Amino acid sequence: DVQLVESGGGLVQAGGSLRLSCTVSGFTFDDYAITWFRQAPGKEREGVSCISRSDGSTYYADSVKGRFTISSDNAKNTVYLQMHILKPEDTAVYYCNYKIASVEVWGQGTLVTVSS
Predict the structure, then answer these.
(1) pLDDT (0 to 100) of residue 30
(2) pLDDT tens-digit profile of 17-41?
(3) pLDDT tens track for 60-71
(4) Which of 17, 26, 35, 50 could form a disulfide with 2 if both were Cys (CB 3.0 to 4.6 A apart)?
């Protein structure tokens, strides 16, 4: 079975940077997608960014476009979310999601806190 492990969360001041990592383990074919979601207290889960393993295409939510960059190190089976110019409204638990065909797997989440 496929498992995901997120890391890289922490506490930063507004304007700072963090890099989140999502490592995929277990057997998988290569035509999967990884999506970063986030959920803040009292708010609905929202999609932040995604990348396709098959063709490298990417997507960014309007709220993070120009500040966040998603990338993949295929040799390490790891997807990164580089976050710059962080804002207090970016504070949330960030989750990575693996999807291939009808199968979805979630990581445990990593907390990002941005102070003003």
Answers:
(1) 82
(2) 999 999 999 988 888 999 999 999 9
(3) 999 999 999 999
(4) 26
Cβ–Cβ < 8 Å for 49, 64: yes
How many residues are given for the chain? Answer: 116
- The C-alpha angle with vertex 111 and arms to 65 and 91, in degrees rounded to 5, equals 50
Q: Which residue has the tokens 């995929």?
A: 24
**Long-range contact pairs involving 26-32 (C-beta distance under 8 Å, separation at least 24):** 26/1, 26/2, 27/1, 27/2, 28/2, 28/98, 28/100, 29/100, 30/54, 31/100, 32/98, 32/99, 32/100
The structure tokens 């890289």 sit at 8
SS3 of 14, please? Answer: coil
